[in-house]
Amino acid sequence: xxxxxxxxxxxxxxxxxxxxxxxxxxxxxxxxxxxxxxxxxxxxxxxxxxxxxxxxxxxxxxxxxxxxxxxxxxxxxxxxxxxxxxxxxxxxxxxxxxxxxxxxxxxxxxxxxxxxxxxxxxxxxxxxxxxxxxxxxxxxxxxxxxxxxxxxxxxxxxxxxxxxxxxxxxxxxxxxxxxxxxxxxxxxxxxxxxxxxxxxxxxxxxxxxxxxxxxxxxxxxxxxxxxxxxxxxxxxxxxxxxxxxxxxxxxxxxxxxxxxxxxxxxxxxxxxxxxxxxxxxxxxxxxxxxxxxxxxxxxxxxxxxxxxxxxxxxxxxxxxxxxxxxxx
Length: 328
Hints:
The protein is of the alpha/beta class. The chain contains 14 helices and nine strands.
């Protein structure tokens, strides 16, 4: 019988470290994670490791600090258990490998250390495609979001988005309608009272009840803020093999996920529109810019199979006789 390998740090100890002033994910990963070679499971063991680190942040940490931080960590874990919210860490076997290489917008490694989850954790075994865009798409933008989410979901992809109204909602709902799998990365705690936006609470519940997944870096009860939303965007791109921009303006928040996708060297697609109602719309100018500057592949309904080939590393877009797509 195979014995499961113990993680280097337990969820409790990681959350304990996160409560210490000046100690963030990168510090934990690089200063502690790279230092230990065997599992650490108790506060005294953790204290011993901290005392060996030549770093001002850790030199000032006392045993009392660790004990108090551990009390908070236990409360966080108990609240998660009460809400039926699971926890996996960077050091667990269930942690998605693709997220270990998650970067920020500058291309620096920035994987989440803790993932709180509600729903079907096995959704992470499917390859992800991020479907993102404006909160106020045009009618053709909604059609595009629904179409591409459904087509990729039918082919076994996990549709990754952020539960926002607009393009995110179209992607999640269409994946469910196609009997596919979808994952929402949230910028808040996963208790139902903290779900943001409130108008998509029912959608969040539908995702869970239909075999999908909610993910977050944040503990039960934490509300959503601007910083959390920006940080969340890197995770949508990080979990996916490629990103599809449905519609975006030039300076939209969507660009955070766009920049992360490009910095990590993953394929970026932007839906191309030809209808003047779309091409003249402010919320499509980001698509036009990304395609024009050759930062994104132009995506239309009639180039779906080419896009899949690129995502799977099998081919590039082929030169075809122009045909009308669904979004012209």
